[in-house]
Structure formats: structure tokens, C-alpha cells
Amino acid sequence: MQDLLEDIAARALGAEDRGKVADYIPELAKVDPNQLGISVATADGELFSAGNAQTPFSIQSISKVFVLALALGQVGEALWKRVGREPSGQAFDSILLLEREKGIPRNPFINAGALVTTDTFLGSASPREALGALIRFIRAASDQEDIHINDAVARSELETAHRNFALAHYMRSYGNLQNSPDLVLGTYCHQCAIEMTCEQLALAGRFLLDTSDAPSLVSPVRKRRINALMMTCGHYDGSGDFAFRVGLPGKSGVGGGILVIAPGRGSVAVWSPGLNGYGNSKLGTEAMEVFARKTGWSIFG
Length: 301
Ligand code: GLN
What we know:
Layout lengths: L1 H12 L6 E2 L15 E6 L4 E5 L5 E2 L4 H13 L20 H5 L10 H12 L4 H16 L5 E2 L1 H9 L2 H12 L7 H12 L1 E3 L1 H7 L15 H14 L5 H7 L4 E3 L4 E6 L3 E6 L2 E2 L6 H14 L6
Helix pairs in contact: 1-12, 2-4, 4-7, 4-8, 5-8, 5-9, 6-8, 7-8, 10-11
The chain binds glutamine.
Pfam families: Glutaminase (PF04960)
GO molecular function, one term: glutaminase activity
GO biological process, one term: L-glutamine catabolic process
């Protein structure tokens, strides 16, 4: 495993096309694209890493996985009245389907759907309380204390979050947001600005493993369902492509991170800031493709 990860990281260093770093959040545009880290936390508790696996990065939409787990913990199946479970086939920040589908987003991993899960998780708490509970959940899942929100990134996104505000107001007009768009966006931008290293993220992902050694923060049924949504919706309109190339549930973020769950085997985090046309890490996806091929880890046997 160690040799494989080092080989993957070394190969990435030589890549000519590294994709394009997200620049619509000004603070993210400053990140050096010449980085790739990869970590594997196995089901039985081993940790392997290579490349820039100890460098903290902005987890962005990967936070949607943790918030979904918490929102389900709070309201259970009632969540599905407010958000669907189908891939959208649209970009992560698209507003297109919301009008046709009357303010009910397709799934919890596109931005509109994540605003609903954040609103649900927020409930009647303050953003500070909700974010505190989210950080505690991630620290418990990973057994790592040193996980924080980068306020500069949160502020940078909040100042430029015009599309996300549009989505929030649109859903609020349909009654599908309980809190004000200001409160929901304030919380959402801070959850996206959580920083983690590949090692911390791979460890945190173990809460979605189905083995007895994994942290038991959610029920087995819920783990299966969150994994199913990651498989079908975790990479936006690139979800089919990721499933085809990697064959494992994954969730990407525009910070360049990807969390991948190999049921029964382990949790993998890869990070490289340059993105492909879908807004998913370009080298991260390629690294996962090689990883899955070489290890044979797949949900398809
Ligand atoms: N914070 C980002 C946004 O809402 C998250 C998007 C992403 O990671 N794909 O635009």
C-alpha cells in the first residue's frame, strides 16, 4: 500500500495538465496547484500516506457528507420531503431544476440540496452552536483534535456567494428554508471552509465504513444510504464518470479534495487543487482511478 501511494504521488508530480484551481472563491485562487496528497485509513485501523498528505486544505463540499449525516440524525426520514435522492446532471451551483421542481433540490450534495441540509441541521440553533457540533462530529469521527474553520476562506466565499444566495432565496420563496438565507449562508460558508489534511479526512471517513472497528456515529442503514448518494451524486454532473472510472462512492469539493469510501476496506482521501471541467479534482480523480485499478477495491466485486 505504501509503495502504491508513493508511486501515485510521484506520478502526479510529473503531470503536465493539473486542471484549474477554483478562483470564484478568491481565497482559494491563492492555493499552489503543484500539490497532491493521498491517505488511506484502513478498516482495521492502519494509516498510509504519501505526497502532501499533512497539508490542510479547504474541504468545501466534502462537508456536505458530514452535514447530511447530522441532518438525518436530527430529523430522520422527514429530510426526504425537502430534498431528493436523484443525480441532477447539472453543475453543483445550478438553479435550473429548482424552478421546474418547485424549490425541492435533487439531492443533498448539490449546493441547493446542501443549503437545505444545513438549514435542517441548523434548526433553531445559532450558527455558532451548529458549527461547533459539526466540528465535534468530525473530530470524533477522525479522532483528531486539530481541525478548524479558516475564517478568511469563509469570509471570502460569503462576500462572493451571489449564486448560493440566489438558490437560498429561491427555495425560501417555496417555503423550503426555515431560517433566513443570511443565517443559512453564514453557516454553509463556514462549514465549507473547514480545513483538514488528507490524513485527517481519511480517518474521518471511517465513520462510513461498515466494519465493526469503524467509529459508530451513524446506523449501518444510514451508512449504506449515504454511500449510495455519494456514488450517484457525489461528483455532480461528473458522478457517472467518477463511478465509471473509480467504482467507489466519493464526494468531491472545489478545494480539490475527494473522500472515497471502499466498503469493508478503508477510507481514502486525495487532494490536488486543480479541477476538471466538472469542478472535481483533476489529478485527484486520476489518482483514484489508478488506486482502484491497482488495489482492486470496488463495490462491484
Ligand atoms: N463552497 C462551495 C460553493 O458553494 C462548495 C462547492 C463545491 O465544493 N463544489 O460554491
